[in-house]
Amino acid sequence: MPRPELLEQIYTIVDQIPAGRVTTYGRIAAMTEGATARSVGSAMRHLPEGHTLPWHRVIAATRKLADHDSAQRQHELLRAEGVTFDVSGKVPAHLLWP
């Protein structure tokens, strides 16, 4: 689990991802002072109960959804925001934020 100050940075960035857009674990890590893509993933897996962060807008660098227990829910939430997927399951590059 990332240090508390890194968690705050990660969560602040995730909160800024606009609806209908996605970003990657690595892009979020690059915007922090020391997080890695893996630590961003850990932060997403350990979100506090009752959070309102748009966790579903964070995807793998392949632009596909990571294989996890909430992948189906993530797909549904993204589709509801207008995010599209190509035939291989990738999100189009033009939807990447920032």
Summarize the structure.
The chain has 98 residues and is mostly helical. It contains four helices and two strands; from the N terminus they run αβααβα. The longest helix has 12 residues, at 4-15.
Q: Report the β-strand fraction as a percent range.
A: under 5%
Sketch the topology as an H/E string, one letter per element.
HEHHEH
Write down how many β-strands occur, each being a DSSP E stretch of 2 or more residues.
Answer: 2
Query: Based on CA inertia axes, which overall geometry fits?
Result: globular
CATH domain topology: Arc Repressor Mutant, subunit A
Q: Class by helix and strand content?
A: mainly alpha
Count, helices: 4
CATH superfamily grouping = Winged helix-like DNA-binding domain superfamily/Winged helix DNA-binding domain
Radius of gyration: 13 Å
CATH class: Mainly Alpha
Largest sheet: 2 strands, parallel
N-to-C CA distance: 25 Å
**Poorly predicted ranges:** none
Q: Give the number of domains.
A: 1
Percentage of residues assigned to helices: 25-40%
Mean pLDDT: 96
- Order of strands, main sheet, comes to 1-2
Any idea what the CATH architecture is?
A: Orthogonal Bundle
Features:
two-stranded parallel sheet, Arc Repressor Mutant, subunit A, 98 residues, 38% helix, mainly alpha
Q: Could you characterize the architecture of this molecule?
A:
- The chain has 98 residues and is mainly alpha-helical.
- The chain has a single domain, classed as Winged helix-like DNA-binding domain superfamily/Winged helix DNA-binding domain (Arc Repressor Mutant, subunit A), CATH 1.10.10.
- 38% of the residues lie in helices and 4% in strands.
- The protein has four helices and two strands; from the N terminus they run H-E-H-H-E-H.
- It has helices spanning 4-15, 25-30, 37-45, 71-80, and strands at 23-24, 58-59.
- The protein has a two-stranded parallel sheet with strand order 1-2.
- The longest helix has 12 residues, at 4-15.
- It starts with a helix and ends in an 18-residue tail after the last helix.
- The model has no long low-confidence stretch (mean pLDDT 96).
